[in-house]
Please model this.
Amino acid sequence: MRFQCEGWPFDSARDPQTPNVLSRFSLFVQVQCPCLDIPRAKHFYEALAAAHPKGAYVLLTQFNAIIDMLLALVFYARGDAPALEGHERNLIAKGRYNRGIEVAFNGLLQRKDEGRAALVPEPAHDPYAHAGAGAGAGGGGTKRAIQGPRIMDKRVPVPAGRFQRLDVDADTSIREFVTATGAVFEAGRGFYELSKAEDVSDKKEVVLEHVASGEMFSGTDAKELLGLPSVGGGHVTKKSTPAGYRAYIQSTSYTRKLIRNTTFLYEMA
Model:
């Protein structure tokens, strides 16, 4: 399924002369990416999805989850709740499940959000709270204990959508890797996964990702959990990364070598 709209989404309440395109679609499933900073887009797409009983509004924060989410939307459009729940369990088993995907399934399955994949379950700390609600194909779901530890102080949450997560499939320089995706490379916007011993300067940002939830945070907590001082640089190794987390170090280089089978974060402009 593909929907392409040239121009800006409109608000019929503000512009009653604009043709009502909602009546032109018998089925519409919208995947919105936060990096498309279009005014009123969320309201427009939610209204468009609500115009049909099988419409769904899903918030997609990572492009690398699009295949998994498209398959979920196919099951949803078919009204096949057991297949949708089975797909969710399969993603959990394969380690591809996180907080953003959980919120999407909550909306598709019309179930209460229990924050089972959240690092910090309280809504006030949850960047996905109230996101992705929509009509679903059924209820249910299997409980799973994948909640991480609570980190309360000196933690700076990374907003959902700040980074795109990419898998490195071959050793390559950071600049070559970024430009091969079609993005414009800018030093300082890339964060490589910690995979070997190295010195980290105080000027570089450190990000920790809770693997089970997909939530990220930086700040002095991230540094201290890696064994770095809150002020000043230090030495780290792969073993410095806490269990259940991935550690990423900001790169300010044009030639930094990315290692095969690691994960790379690139900050959206």
User: Anything to note?
Assistant: The mean pLDDT is 76.
